[in-house]
């Protein structure tokens, strides 16, 4: 990619991360945070200004647009999807990106005052980007490459195709979603309006990733109700809600947690634990690639709750557990040409495909079960959801090339 388009891509990404678009878990409103509307409205106007057709923003902040076909024959519409919210796991407010040109392969000081270092020893994959341009945080926020890198890549690819009509392609749909980070990004996505035979989420991590398997996912929100009594007179009277919560957590397998598992191994991830003697609550996310094991994990939680209710009383524990998304492979295999085309596109632009299961999920997980098979392609970032997040500009450039090449390959077929 030449310098002009590289600069367009970089500037676009930096603009997107300037928007505070953090989503909020466990709320009824959609989108979950009013602040997501700012970037949604910006994208709506940007797509119109670029010349896409049928650009829209709906009442739920979904943004869609369409690049018209420049072929003299009718072929399948394909799509590209990314989300513009950022994770509530770490602050996305007042992001101050740093640009390190011609990275030397060593440590990167993110924030001298806070002694925040992006260490090439702690994160050895950094070293593969020696000589490239690295965009990092300033150590106080996440960056937002998950998934504003994907948004920037899709928009830049559409602009590039408009500027190069000699590149033949069919109709391409693009869609940008809120609330992916809280598991609701596909809740109101209008698959029929999108009109694609299949699509790709640009929401993977390092360069080369191509994924069409992901976790089955659920969350569990458990409340404990205690009985507060003066501790000096508490014998046989007090029921400590925090103690109940600790007892529950101790009943789950202690080695089936994110920090001790990898590959297709599932886990229980404790994401929240707070309370006092009277009231306590804990939150888990439950993940497994295998549906049988996924159901077994949920059943275990239900069994522990039932046992504790029998011991302490039905009124002492409340469980709210819901499925979030499922393993997309069941639907992607019905349109497996989507994977084959993406794999060829990666190779055609000089990238060795890294095909592996996602230890997480994307909008594509749920969209696949809504009738839009949706493999996932790298967006280029690393260390998502925290202050050590970074993205090499050259990886983003390659993602743009992959999008363009997929459009060409579909047209050729």
What does this structure look like?
The protein is of the alpha+beta class and 413 residues long. It has two domains: 3-214 and 327-412, Zn peptidases (Aminopeptidase, 3-Layer(aba) Sandwich), CATH 3.40.630; 217-325, 2-Layer Sandwich (Alpha-Beta Plaits). 31% of the residues lie in helices and 22% in strands. It has ten helices and 17 strands. It has helices spanning 3-17, 36-50, 145-163, 191-194, 241-251, 291-312, 329-332, 337-348, 363-369, 393-412; strands spanning 53-57, 63-67, 78-83, 98-100, 108-111, 116-118, 134-136, 172-177, 198-204, 209-211, 216-225, 267-275, 279-288, 317-325, 354-355, 376-378, 390-392. An eight-stranded mixed β-sheet has the order 1-2-8-3-9-16-10-15, with helices on one face. A four-stranded antiparallel β-sheet has the order 12-13-11-14. Helix 1 packs antiparallel against helix 3 (145-163) and helix 1 packs across helix 10. The longest helix has 22 residues, at 291-312. It is globular and about 80 Å long. The two termini are 25 Å apart.
Write the layout of secondary structure elements.
Layout: H1 3-17, H2 36-50, E1 53-57, E2 63-67, E3 78-83, E4 98-100, E5 108-111, E6 116-118, E7 134-136, H3 145-163, E8 172-177, H4 191-194, E9 198-204, E10 209-211, E11 216-225, H5 241-251, E12 267-275, E13 279-288, H6 291-312, E14 317-325, H7 329-332, H8 337-348, E15 354-355, H9 363-369, E16 376-378, E17 390-392, H10 393-412
Helix pairs in contact: 1-3, 1-10, 3-10, 8-10
């Amino acid at each position: 990619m030449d310098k002009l388009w590289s600069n367009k891509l970089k500037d676009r990404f930096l603009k997107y991360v300037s928007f505070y678009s953090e989503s909020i878990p466990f709320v009824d409103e959609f989108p979950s945070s009013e602040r997501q509307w700012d970037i949604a409205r910006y994208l709506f106007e940007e797509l119109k200004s670029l010349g896409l057709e049928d650009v829209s923003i709906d009442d739920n902040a979904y943004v869609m647009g369409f690049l018209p076909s420049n072929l003299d024959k009718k072929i399948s519409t394909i799509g590209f999807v990314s989300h513009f919210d950022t994770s509530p796991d770490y602050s996305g407010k007042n992001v101050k990106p740093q640009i390190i040109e011609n990275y030397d392969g060593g440590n990167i000081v993110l924030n001298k005052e806070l002694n925040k270092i992006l260490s090439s020893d702690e994160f050895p994959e950094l070293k593969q980007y020696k000589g490239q341009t690295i965009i990092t945080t300033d150590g106080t926020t996440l960056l937002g490459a998950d998934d504003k890198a994907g948004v920037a890549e899709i928009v830049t690819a559409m602009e590039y195709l408009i500027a190069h009509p000699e590149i033949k392609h069919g109709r391409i749909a693009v869609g940008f979603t809120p609330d992916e980070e809280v598991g609701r990004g596909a809740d109101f996505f209008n698959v029929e309006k999108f009109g694609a035979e299949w699509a790709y989420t640009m929401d993977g991590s390092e360069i080369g990733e191509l994924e069409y398997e992901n976790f089955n996912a659920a969350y569990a929100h458990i409340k404990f109700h205690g009985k507060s009594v003066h501790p000096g007179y508490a014998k046989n009277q007090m029921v400590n809600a925090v103690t109940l919560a600790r007892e529950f957590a101790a009943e789950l397998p202690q080695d089936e947690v994110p920090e001790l598992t990898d590959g297709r191994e599932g886990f229980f991830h404790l994401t929240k634990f707070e309370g006092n003697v009277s009231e306590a609550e804990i939150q888990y996310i439950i993940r497994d690639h295998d549906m049988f094991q996924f159901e077994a994990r949920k059943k275990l939680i239900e069994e522990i709750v039932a046992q504790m209710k029998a011991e302490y009383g039905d009124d002492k524990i409340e469980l709210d557990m819901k499925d979030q998304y499922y393993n997309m492979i069941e639907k992607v295999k019905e349109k497996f040409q989507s994977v084959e085309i993406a794999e060829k596109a990666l190779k055609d632009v000089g990238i060795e495909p890294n095909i592996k299961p996602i230890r997480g999920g994307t909008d594509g997980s749920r969209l696949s079960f809504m009738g839009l098979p949706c493999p996932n392609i790298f967006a280029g970032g690393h260390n998502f959801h925290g202050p050590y997040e970074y993205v090499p500009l050259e990886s983003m450039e390659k993602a743009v090339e992959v999008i363009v090449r997929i459009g060409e390959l579909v047209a050729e077929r």
